[in-house]
Amino acid sequence: MNQIHFLAISFMYNGSAQVITPVLLQDEHELILVDCGYPDFLPLLQEAAHKQQLTLDDLTKVIVTHHDMDHIGSLAALKRTYPHLEIIAYESEAPYIAGQKTSLRLEQAQATLDHLASGEKQHAEEFIRFLRSIEPCAVDRTVTNHERLPLCGGIEIIHTPGHMPGHISLYLIASKTLIAGDAVVIENGRLEIANPSYTLDMQEAIRSVRRLLDYDIEQLICYHGGSFQGDVKKALRELLQAYDPTQEVLNG
């Protein structure tokens, strides 16, 4: 029994309606959450799990794709509420999640502060205060590129840098499902690179999309956009060619 449960969570952020899609992976022995939303999202996660006839009391692990605020915001609260949880992240992400290194998103925001107009600066300062408020959480287990976890039919770790240097996506071997994190997003039914202004290295992000073509993907799940409807390989190739029309995409 290997099941994938979508936890589509709707909320308001900065005056606009948004949706994120954390995922629960389930087998006979494990209930694994992939990413966990903004701070104070624990009740929303619990409610979304309940709608799937599941309870977070049964959670065994949390896999973090990267240390952005909407992916780790409720991680410390989860660990506090369910102390038996094993927190898993990519090896280079662990110090940021644990608060041992300054968030790269915070460094990015601070670096742009002096170049902003006064009105924009106030918003940026509020964002910086918010980033500083994210509660750190120790990582229990680190993983590496192409490592295979013997969970839920097999989970391969795919290092997909660009959005952040330590970003990972997950390939579920049994169901040929890719959990993309923020490696790609769905906008108006199309695959896109996650918000370019938040992508720390666009060329790396494009190379990461190209890497995904090495996998036989029947289902693609994006944190922003949910489940992609359509031919995944074709959509990935179209995305790559939109960024570099001169290069032929051979994979897939």
Characterise the protein shown here:
It catalyses: 3',5'-cyclic CMP + H2O = CMP + H(+); 3',5'-cyclic UMP + H2O = UMP + H(+). Counteracts the endogenous Pycsar antiviral defense system. Phosphodiesterase that enables metal-dependent hydrolysis of host cyclic nucleotide Pycsar defense signals such as cCMP and cUMP. Residues 19-224 form the Metallo-beta-lactamase domain. It comes from Brevibacillus brevis (strain 47 / JCM 6285 / NBRC 100599). The protein is α/β, with parallel strands linked by helices and 252 residues long. It is built from eight helices and 16 strands. The protein folds into two domains: 3-100 and 136-243, Ribonuclease Z/Hydroxyacylglutathione hydrolase-like (Metallo-beta-lactamase, Chain A, 4-Layer Sandwich); 101-135. The longest helix has 16 residues, at 118-133. The chain is globular and about 55 Å long.
